[in-house]
C-alpha cells in the first residue's frame, strides 16, 4: 500500500487519484503508526515550508518519516514535500527544515521578464536518471507551481534540472529517496508514468 502523509497542507486527494489512475491504491493518513508501517511513503504539499514543518512536528510525524527513509522504504516528496527535506528555507524569513538532506530553499531572483511564481510546463533535463523516471524521455515537460527552489549542498543529489531564467534543481535522488519540485499528479501521462514507476519499486 502507498501511504500519503496528511499534515493538512497539500493536494492530497489529487495525488491519491493520480495513483489510482495508474492502478495502484493509495491511503491518506495522519496516523504516525500507519506512516511507520507504510511500504511506500509519499509526502506531498502546497504552501509555506516553515508552517508545513511545524505542522509535521506538531502531529508527531517527523520521527516516522525519518525512520522510514533511514530504513530504505521508497519515499517520494512532491513540491513542498521536496523543500521540507532540506536544512533551511528562506520563505517568509528563515525557517528550519527537516534536515534530512543538506542544503537550502531560496526564492527565484530572475532576469527582467520572468514572473514569480514559476507556473506552468517546463522541460526536465536529466543529470542522473532515477528508476522512477524509467521510460521518460530527456526534455519531457512537467508541471511546476513554485516561487522557491532547493539548492542542495551536494551536487550529486541533483537528479533533474529545469531552466527558468537559469538552471535550477527540479528533482533529487538519494538511494530510496526521490523528490520532485514539479507535480507528477498534474503532469498528465508523463507524471502518471513517474507515479506508476514509484509504485512498482521493490
Automatic annotation (TrEMBL):
Pfam families: GATase (PF00117). Residues 4-198 form the Glutamine amidotransferase domain. Its EC number is 4.3.2.10, 3.5.1.2. It catalyses: 5-[(5-phospho-1-deoxy-D-ribulos-1-ylimino)methylamino]-1-(5-phospho-beta-D-ribosyl)imidazole-4-carboxamide + L-glutamine = D-erythro-1-(imidazol-4-yl)glycerol 3-phosphate + 5-amino-1-(5-phospho-beta-D-ribosyl)imidazole-4-carboxamide + L-glutamate + H(+); L-glutamine + H2O = L-glutamate + NH4(+). PROSITE patterns: GATASE_TYPE_1. One of its GO terms (molecular function) is lyase activity. Keywords: Amino-acid biosynthesis, Cytoplasm, Glutamine amidotransferase, Glycosyltransferase, Histidine biosynthesis, Hydrolase, Lyase, Transferase. Pathway: Amino-acid biosynthesis; L-histidine biosynthesis; L-histidine from 5-phospho-alpha-D-ribose 1-diphosphate: step 5/9. Its main location: cytoplasm. It comes from the Bacteria. The keyword Transferase applies. The keyword Amino-acid biosynthesis applies. GO terms for biological process: L-histidine biosynthetic process. The active site is at residues 79, 183, 185. CDD domains: GATase1_IGP_Synthase. It is found in: Cytoplasm. One of its GO terms (cellular component) is cytoplasm. IGPS catalyzes the conversion of PRFAR and glutamine to IGP, AICAR and glutamate. The HisH subunit catalyzes the hydrolysis of glutamine to glutamate and ammonia as part of the synthesis of IGP and AICAR. The resulting ammonia molecule is channeled to the active site of HisF. Heterodimer of HisH and HisF. NCBIfam families: IMP_synth_hisH (TIGR01855). HAMAP family: HisH. This is Imidazole glycerol phosphate synthase subunit HisH.
Amino acid at each position: 500500500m502507498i501511504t500519503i502523509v496528511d499534515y493538512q497542507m497539500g493536494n492530497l486527494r489529487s495525488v491519491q487519484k493520480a495513483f489510482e489512475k495508474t492502478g495502484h491504491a493509495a491511503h491518506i493518513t495522519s496516523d504516525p503508526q500507519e506512516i511507520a508501517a507504510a511500504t511506500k511513503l509519499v509526502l506531498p504539499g502546497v504552501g509555506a515550508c516553515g508552517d508545513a514543518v511545524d505542522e509535521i512536528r506538531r502531529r508527531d510525524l517527523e520521527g516516522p518519516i525519518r525512520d522510514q527513509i533511514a530504513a530504505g522504504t521508497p519515499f517520494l516528496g512532491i513540491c513542498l514535500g521536496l523543500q521540507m527535506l532540506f536544512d533551511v528555507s528562506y520563505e517568509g524569513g528563515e525557517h528550519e527544515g527537516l534536515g534530512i538532506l543538506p542544503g537550502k530553499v531560496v526564492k527565484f531572483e530572475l532576469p527582467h521578464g520572468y514572473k514569480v511564481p514559476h507556473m506552468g510546463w517546463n522541460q526536465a533535463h536529466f543529470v542522473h536518471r532515477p528508476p522512477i523516471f524509467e521510460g521518460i524521455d530527456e526534455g519531457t515537460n512537467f508541471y511546476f507551481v513554485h516561487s522557491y527552489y532547493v539548492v542542495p549542498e551536494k551536487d550529486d543529489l541533483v537528479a533533474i534540472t529545469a531552466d527558468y531564467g537559469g538552471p535550477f534543481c527540479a528533482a533529487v535522488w538519494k538511494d530510496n529517496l526521490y523528490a520532485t519540485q514539479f507535480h507528477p499528479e498534474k503532469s498528465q501521462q508523463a507524471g502518471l508514468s513517474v507515479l506508476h514507476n514509484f509504485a512498482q519499486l521493490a
